Amino acid sequence: MTFHIGEILKATGGKILQGGDQVVFHAITTDSRTVTEGALFISLKGEKFDGHHFAIEALEKKAGGVVIEEDRAGDIRWNGYQTRPVIVVKDTLHALGDIARDRRRKYGVPVVALTGSNGKTTTKEMISACLETTFPILKTKGNLNNLIGLPLTLLNLTEKERVVVLEMGMNVPGEIRRLTEIAEPDVGLITNIQRAHLEGVGSLERIKEEKGELFRRMRRDGSIIVNQDDPRVIDLGEEFPGQKITFGIDHPADVMAREIRIKGREGTSFILILEGEETEVRLPLLGKHFVHNALSAIAAASLFGVEPERTIEALEQSRPFPMRMEVFSLGNGKTLINDAYNANPNSMELALQTLSEAKGRGRAIAVLGDMLEMGEFTVEAHHQLGKKVAELSIDLLLAIGDEAPVVVESAIREGLGHERARVVESHSEAASILREFAREGDWILVKGSRGMAMEKVVEGLKERREERNALSSALSSS
User: Fold this and answer.
1) How many CB atoms lie within 10 A of CB 34?
2) Which residues pair with 223 in a beta bridge?
């Protein structure tokens, strides 16, 4: 993997402040801590750190050169490093994206890009797994889906890959538009449009418009995958001139599912309807929403001619990601659903519905943290959350966070008994109550926004289980 300085200058419109014009860089990085000899360091400015402060450190680590913003050129003293290239650009973040787009154009392989309010990472992994049965691919690692992560992914593209799968996240207006400009997708997918990141965007209609930039800005001769169960996504796809393939559960589509069954620890099964054929699919993932993810992956794979049998096999080998509807036993017949990665109103409702269906004859216990970044909708969102808990007759509600009183009061007002809903002050208090209350057959859901760190409740329960197992082992060996 190499990058000639001429390519960098052409892609970014940058200029050489000092150093030669015949240098070849073996890698590109934005992290001074991981700079390797001969790499190009791009000095990005963030909320907490400014990469310009680490430009000299990067050169000390034998970086092949650095990229800085033109208005910072006079702030850095290059004593001892005058022979290393220093490239100046107007905006280093924009330059990173421009370099990545140039890389994407150089190899010209098909790019699948997806965004949405819920299920992005799971869907990205499902699509990747299906395509990997037939092609070598490059995909977004983890959830590196922003204006830094997506370009860095594309910079890893080589002549070996045949398909690229990219996840696109959004926190602020304009982000999806810029990511689409960089990626130039051949295939676009919007998983769904729900209330998420309202604080940064403002309204559900605004979210729709921002997510819709994927369909508007991608290649006009490309293909889009449309969720027929989401009217906002359908609306966004209406004006796309290229190929459309649809998926759905509740509405007619090219790729459909029926007879969905929640099977507790076994996961979720459904009947796939594709090209007139019906096939049972067994997902080792818990929740109806995973069926939507799987259908969109099947649709994407079909665009690339992947055999349905290979696609289904790949999906049936799926595994949940950490803190995303992750199911495991707590021992003594108790089951925990760890969905602590993040939360918004739609994902909360889906998780609670899944808990209610999965519990069987046991009791349903929900430990819920605040939903953050909801803006003016915050109080109403938590009021609706409490109402949903009551509607599903959850057996015990423990709520944590500033909005916990709203959730609990709403649940009680809607009919949940006072003794079955309470505010807790800490993760450790929640774990302590669960250890006392939970019994054989119970199912426990732990969920909240990323900033609530709800995994601490899970860790508290796991630690006690490990202590109990260690004690049992010691007693049996004595």
Assistant:
1) 12
2) 187, 243
Task: Provide the residue range defining the domain that includes 277.
Answer: 108-316
Instruction: With a cut of 90, say whether residue 244 has pLDDT above it.
Output: yes
The DSSP bridge pattern shows strands 326-331 and 277-283 to be: unpaired
Distance between CA atoms of residues 183 and 154, nearest Å: 8
- Looking at the structure, do residues 80 and 112 belong to the same domain, yes or no? no
**Using CA atoms, how far apart are residues 65 and 90, in angstroms rounded to an integer?**
17
The pLDDT value recorded for residue 474 is: 42
pLDDT at 471: 37
How far is residue 285's CA from residue 290's CA, in Å, rounded to a whole number? 7
Number of domains in the chain: 3
pLDDT in tens, 103-159: 999 999 999 999 999 999 999 999 999 999 999 999 999 889 999 999 999 999 999
Q: Categorize the per-residue pLDDT at 469 as very low, low, confident or very high, splitting at 50, 70 and 90.
A: low
Tally of helices (H runs) and strands (E runs) in the chain: 17, 22
Round to whole Å and give the CA distance between 353 and 291: 14
Instruction: Name the nearest CA neighbour of 32 among 56, 48, 9.
Output: 56
- pLDDT score of 70 more than 70: yes
pLDDT tops 70 at residue 307? yes
Q: Which amino acid is at 227?
A: N
Residue in the block written with tokens 């659903």 = 337
264 Cβ contact partners less than 8 Å away, ≥ 6 residues apart: 286, 335, 358, 360
Mean pLDDT, range 336-357, rounded to an integer? 95
Termini Cα distance of the chain? 58
Burial class (CB in 10 A: 0-12, 13-18, 19+), 422: middle
> Final residue of a domain: which of 259, 287, 316?
316
Give the CATH number for residue 439: 3.90.190.20
Q: At what angle do helices 175-183 and 92-107 cross, to 10 degrees?
A: 40
Cα pseudo-dihedral 237, 243, 248, 250, rounded to 10: 60
pLDDT at residue 48, as a whole number:
86
141 and 73, same structural domain?
no
Neighbours of 169 (CB within 10 A): 20
In the chain, the percentage of residues whose pLDDT exceeds 70 is 96
Domain presence at residue 103? no
